[in-house]
Design a protein that fits this description.
Radius of gyration: 63 Å
Oligomer: single chain
Largest sheet: 7 strands, antiparallel
CATH topology of the largest domain: Beta-Lactamase
Helix content: over 70%
Number of strands: 12
Distance between the termini: 41 Å
Number of domains: 2
Structural class: alpha+beta
CATH class of the largest domain: Alpha Beta
Order of helices and strands: HHHEEEHHEEEEHEEHHEEEHHHH
Amino acid sequence: MPLLRQLSIQWKITLLAGLCLAAIVTLLVGLSLYRMDHSSDLVKASSMQMLTEAAQSRIESQGEVQALNIRRQFMDAYQYGAGFARQVLFLREQAEKRFLDAYDLRQDMTAQVRAALQANPDLLGLSLVFEPGALDAKDKLFAGQSELGSNETGRFALYWSQPRAGQLTSMALPEHDMANTEIGPSGQPANTWWVCPRSSGAVCVVEPYFYDIDGQRVLMTSIVFPLKANGKVIATLSIDINLNSLQALSQAASRSLYEGRTTVGILSPVGLLAGYSADAGLLAKRFDQVDQTQGGELVRKLADGKLQILHDQQRLKVLAAFEPIPGGKPWGVLLDVPENALTGPAEALKQELDTLNTSGTLLELGLGLAAAIAGLLLVWLMARGVTRPILGVAAMLKDIASGEGDLTRRLQYDKRDELGELAGWFNRFLDKLQPTIAEVKRSVQAARGTADQSAAIAAQTSAGMEQQYRQVDQVATASHEMSATAQDVARSAAQAAQAAREADQATREGLAVIDRTTTSIDTLAADMSSAMAQVEGLAHNSEKIGSVLEVIRSIAEQTNLLALNAAIEAARAGEAGRGFAVVADEVRNLARRTQESVEETRQVIEALQAGTQEVVGAMDSSHRQAQGGVEQVGQAVSALQRIGQAVTVITDMNLQIASAAEEQSAVAEEINSNVATIRDVTESLSGQANESARVSQSLNSLANQQQGLMDQFRV
């Protein structure tokens, strides 16, 4: 320790800084090496996990992408077939409605199927098979005419194939194809394409199968649509899809994943291989026979319709399920990747990190040593220009600064070195600075009080102007509403006056109509009085006719008696009186007929007399009602005259109201204009008051800021 006291400040700084620098460099290099090694292990472990997970995610996404691509092929065929099925049903319906000839119907059907297949070169074939007699009940007329789509029984069973785009051939499917129940590799009968849509009534996707087309053995599947009429299946439409494209798709996907080390398979719902990149010879084979370890489990999980993952120490298998058509059984895309293919990038990264860590460790050690030597040299050079007294004064100044600017404190240093001289002159500087800061602090406090008072006055002024502006705005609104109300009153009064004038005119017209009605009623009453007299004369004449008829009846009775006596006398005369007897008999008949006619005439006249009496009574009642109507019309005339006088008074009053309302509206408009001017001026003054308040607040903020700065010093 005595040796250290004898050393100069420069060497003390150099020695202390050099030791500190050496310790720091050693610590940092050691810590860096430790962190590098730890980070390397962590990066290797994390990268291994991340790359494995990324590879698995990539496999899963690729499986879903391939599933979507395959589903798009199925959906294109499905949508095309659904549209063509509707077209076939429409054609059959129109043929029934228009009584189309059976030959023309079959020819049109054949042409439509051919055109539909030719328009879609991606399809392998298109078949349309009706139930026996379901097309038009004329199948027997076309037996064996395959050019019209009819097979040996006449059933319309047309099949168009397209082995290559644009090369179309047709045939009539024999009855054997619809009745073939031979079990295929899928466990389903060979005629599933015919039976499934008829039994289920829904669209079916047939399991993959091989079929000979133009001498070529083609792996294909079919989407079969039931054609219904009145809720009953009458035919099936089959869309054949060439699955060779799926094989090409699986091989392309295999080449794009991990340099061809990925096996890609496409599975049907029962586990048949529709595509297999590893071996095309296994197509249409059951996958549980190809992969006897996990094949059966994957096929069973395929029915769940979800993404399935099987991962062991050797391989990763991802099964992406998809529905080829809406509501169909799920198919699946299988991706089988070796474990070393997944971890290969991670292993390569691990080796590269180990190489980088080794070279990094050597480089860091060399840099640490060089940094330590360079640091010692730099400290020695800096110690020559910066002495310890300056550092001591800096420490004391820091103490004063951390003590909330206490200017009452002084530097205490009793040594006579550079620091002692610096401390003395610094204390003299504080002696001059302390009273100046005290005076400035008092001035700032006074300015802050003035700013607070100004801000309060500005705030009150702004609040008053705001209140005045709101009140003036309310007055302007009320004035505007009053003006609008006055205008409405004027319009309503004018309309009321017009309505009153129309009512007065209507009253005058009503008086004229009533006057004409009174004249008509008087004329009617006079005519009815005359008619009553004539009807009463008719009744009197009817009574006279009755008396005449009574005389005629009496004469007829006497004539009858005379004729009877003459007949008796003629009978007594014998043969000489026979002619007279005949005449007497005729006279008696005429007398009898005269009596019957007189009796009928009497009944008619009595009925006429009864009706005449009813007419007389009705006309008398109508005469009295007409006289009463004349009196009521007179009362109505008096009432209408009073109404007309009242309407005239209302018209005059409405005109006066309208005139007064128009004058009020003009005055209200002038008041509204004046109030609007006052509101604009008030709004301008309010804005100026707000600006003044903002300036006062700014001044107050500045005063507070200065006060805060001065409070940092203690005097």
